[in-house]
Amino acid sequence: MIEAIGLKKSFGPVPALCEISMEIREDQVFGLIGSNGAGKSTLLRLIAGVLRPDKGEIRVDGEAVYDRPAIKERIFFISDEGWFFRNAVPRDVIGFYAGVYPGFEREKCLSLLSDFGLDPDRRISNFSKGMKKQLSVLLGISSGTKYLLCDETFDGLDPVMKEGVKSLFSREMKERPLTPVIASHNLRELQDICQHVGILHRGGVLLSEEISALNPEIQRVQLVLEDEEASKEKLSELPILRQSRNGSVLTLVIRGKREEVEEKIRALSPRFFELLPLGLEELFISETEDAGYELKKILSDGA
After folding, report:
1. How many CB atoms lie within 10 A of CB 299?
2. Per-residue pLDDT for 300 more than 60?
3. Residue 288 sits in which domain range?
4. Which of 24, 124, 180, 247 has the most other CB atoms within 10 Å of its CB?
5. Other Cβ atoms within 10 Å of 166 Cβ, number
6. Tens-place pLDDT, residues 240-249
7. SS3 call for 10
8. What is the CATH number of the domain that holds 287?
């Protein structure tokens, strides 16, 4: 398990994390989401032992991580930017990591490179952004570490490769102890892979919950109204957090318990309606709006 205990980190006068405390349990995919500058990358670097906290502590399996090489052997960190030796080819990097991580599997990594169509003897500097991301993930999977920290892992991957990476995570988790921690701005990409989600905002933790126990006070509804003009007044009285339209189909995110929202929707006499599972985007929007993140204004300004 990974524990952040009263964690605080600043860069000069700029606070990145403000005494946060949270837990990341083993053998599940943990999605770390947050507004820009929320502290996601800083938290991952602290967990990896790259940065030292100003206050508080990171514990991995009950032990402090900073300046502890034996604990760091359990963690592989994939940064958003990615960095490789000048003029290196994947085979060189495999050799390097095999010397750093005792459990690194060379042959497995070469096999995965072949599966993903990556040439082990081609200069990495000639790889595209997506190819570099793939290489980083494959190195992390092959490292044999218990914890895999991924900063914007899916950014730059095409849809086929995204599904390939997700399938790889799933397969590895069935075969051995593995806890991926994935920080991302693309919430839809985490929806179908994460079991637990943590929301950071302005250096603090807004929420840390199992996906299955997401906010019961927010509902997502799709409906088609019989007479939209006649229903306009009743619609305006609903505590709608967000709405969108696709033809005659309205999708509403409404604050309230399921039974209450269902009763109010029935009162509109819709031609059709359906309550849908709450998505990570809706959860993120509702939680950050409550914390003062003026997303409605941003969305309306950009419309």
Report:
1. 11
2. no
3. 213-302
4. 180
5. 19
6. 877 888 888 9
7. strand
8. 3.30.70
